[in-house]
Amino acid sequence: MKVENKKIKVGVLLVAILIFSFLGVYFYASNSGESDIVADRGQTFLFVNPVFAESLSGGTTFLEEEAGMSIYVNVGLPLDLSAAQSVYKTVEEDTSDYIIGSFSLPDLPESDDVHCFVHKDGWIVVYYLKNEPISKIIDWSYYSANQLTKTKLQVGLEQMGLALGVTVTDAKYYNFQYPYADKWMIIIESREGSGEDSFNLKIPGEFTVYERSWSHYAQHAGSGFPGYNRAYFRIDGSEINRINNSGETVCGQLTVTQLSPDVFHTVSIYSSETGRQSVCIVLAYQES
Question: Would you say domain 2-46+181-286 falls under CATH 2.60.120.10?
Answer without folding.
Answer: yes
